[in-house]
Amino acid sequence: MHDEVKWITRATFLIALGAAPLQGAVTSQDWGKLPDGRTAHLYTVSSPTVTIKLSDYGARLVSVSVPDRNNQKADISLGYPDLASYGPGKDPYFGPIVGRFGNRLNSGTFPLEGKTFHVSTNEGPNTLHGGKEGFDRKMWLGKVLRDGVLFTLVSPDGDQGFPGKLTVQVAYTLTGNSLKIHYSAVTSKPTVVNLTNHGYWNLSGAGNGTVLGEQMQIFAHHYTPVDKQLIPTGEIAPVEGTPFDFTKPKAIGQDIHAGNEQLVLAGEGYDHNWVLDGKAGVMHPALLLYDPASGRTLKFETTEPGLQWYSGNGLQKTKLPNGQNYPKYGAVVLETQHFPDSPNQPKWPTTELKPEQTLNSTTVLTFGVKK
Ligand code: BGC
Q1: What value does the mean pLDDT take over residues 101-106?
Q2: Beta-carbon neighbour count of residue 244 at 10 Å?
Q3: How far is CA 208 from CA 68, 88, 314, in A?
Q4: pLDDT for the residue numbered 128
Q5: 243 vs 262: CA distance, rounded Å
Q6: Contact criterion met (CB below 8 Å) for 206 and 78
Q7: 24 pLDDT tier (thresholds 50, 70, 90)
Q8: Where residue 13 falls among pLDDT bands split at 50, 70, 90?
Q9: Is the pLDDT of residue 74 over 50?
Q10: Ligand 1: which of 78, 197, 271 to mutate, most ligand atoms within 8 Å of CB?
C-alpha cells in the first residue's frame, strides 16, 4: 500500500512538472462501473519509450503506445478507451488474460484423475477461453508495483465447472522496451490450467489497415492441424512445404489465400497452434513480427511450449472505437501457451496442476524499430 501511494504521487508530481515519465512510472485511476456495479480501474505504466494501459477488468492490456522509425507513436494493441465498449458480444477478447483454459476444450469435457469433468460451453458444444465467464470477464485485484501492475484472481472451486480453488497472479512489468508478463497459479485440488494474454496486434497502429503486409517469423518447425470446429486433431505436422512455414520471415498475407484446407477451415486464415522449437520451461524465442511500413518490430520470448496465432479472420464483425468495423485481418493475436485441448491429448505437454505444485510461466514482449 505504502509503495502504491509513493509511486502514484511521484508520477503525478512529474506529470505536473511536465517532465517525461520515469522508467517504471505507474498511475491508477477509476475507469467506471460495469452494468453489474463492479468498479474497474485503468493503470498507466510508462517507460521513456513505451506507454501501456492495463485494466483490472480481465487483467487486460488496453493500449500499448510505441514509436515508429520516425519516432511517431501509435497504439499497436486493439482496445477501447471506455469500459462500456467491452463485454460479451462486444469485443472478441481484446487484450485480457484468458483462462482457466486458453483456446478450446473439445465438447467442454476432459478426463482428470479418473473422473470426467464437464465445464461451461460457449462456442457450440465446445469451450473457448474458459467458458461463459472466463477470466477475461472477472474483476481482478490490481496492485501497483514500482514498474508495473500485479493482478490477482481467486477462482473458486467449481468455477465454470473446473475443479479446485485456483489462485492466479499475473504481473505485467515494463523495463525500457520490454514488457514482461509473469503468470503464477496454485490450486487446492488437481485441475487443468492454460493461461495466456489475448492481445491483438497491428504494428501499423490499431485500426490502420490489415496485417497482411507485416512479416512474421515463428521459431517452430511443427504445428497442430485442426478439425472443422478448430479443435486439434492430435496430429503434430511439419510446417515445411505448407503455408504454415514461417521459419524464415514471410509476409502474413503471402500464402493466406492459397486455398490450403487448414486455412479454409479457419475462415481463410491462420488460427492454429505452432509447436515451438525451444524447450518448455526455459525462455526461448517464439516469434518476430516486423512492419515494413512503420519499421516497428515485436519480439515474443516465452517459457511456454506453444504459440496459438490467429490472423483476425473474423475481425470484420468487430467495431472500432469510431463505430466503423475493423477490416478482416486487421490484427494478429499472439498467444504463448500450452496446446489447445491438451487435457484430451495425453501425449502433449501436460496442463495439469496439482496442489503441491506452483504454475510459473513467463512471456516477454520486446518492442523495437528497424531503420
Ligand atoms: C481463437 C479464435 C477466436 C478468437 C476469438 C482466438 O484465440 O483462436 O478462434 O475466434 O480467439 O476472439
Answers
A1: 98
A2: 24
A3: 14, 24, 16
A4: 98
A5: 9
A6: yes
A7: low
A8: very low
A9: yes
A10: 271
For ligand 1, the distance from its centroid to the CA atom of residue 268, given in whole angstroms, is 14
Whether 127 lines ligand 1, by a CB cut-off of 6 Å, is no
Q: CA 181, CA 173: separation in Å to the nearest integer?
A: 7
Q: How far apart are CA 299 and CA 55, in angstroms?
A: 23
| Ligand 1 pocket test, candidate residues 90, 106, 313, 333, most atoms within 8 A of CB | 333
Q: Give the strands of the sheet with 39-46, arranged side by side.
A: 25-33, 39-46, 51-55, 60-67, 73-75
- Distance from residue 179's CA to the centre of ligand 1 (Å): 23
Residue 140 makes CB contacts below 8 A (sequence gap 6+) with 56, 57, 58, 59, 97, 151, 152, 153, 170
- Of these residues, 198, 214, 301, 304, which one is catalytic? 198
The residue whose C-alpha atom lies closest to atom 6 belonging to ligand 1 is 310
**10 pLDDT tier (thresholds 50, 70, 90):** very low
Span from the CA of 237 to the centroid of ligand 1 (angstroms) = 21
Q: Measured at the alpha carbon of residue 212, what is the angle toward residues 209 and 217, in degrees to the nearest 5? A: 130
Cβ of 314 closer than 6 Å to ligand 1, yes or no, is yes
| CA–CA gap between residue 255 and residue 244 (Å, rounded) | 9
Cell 494474454 sits on residue: 197
- In this predicted structure, the answer to whether residue 14 has a pLDDT above a threshold of 60 is no
Active-site entry in 214, 301, 304, 335: 335
The response to whether residue 310 sits with its C-beta less than 6 Å from ligand 1 reads yes
- Distance CA(21)–CA(12), nearest Å, equals 9
In tens, the pLDDT along 126-170 reads 999 999 999 999 999 999 999 999 999 999 999 999 999 999 999
Task: Give the confidence band of 8 by pLDDT, cuts at 50, 70, 90.
Answer: very low
Is 198 among the catalytic positions?
A: yes
| Whole-number pLDDT of residue 4 | 37
Atom of ligand 1 nearest to the CA of 310: 8
**Does residue 267 line the site of ligand 1, with CB under 6 A?**
no
Q: What local confidence, expressed as pLDDT, does residue 89 receive?
A: 85
% of the chain exceeding 90 in pLDDT: 92
First to last CA, the chain: 43
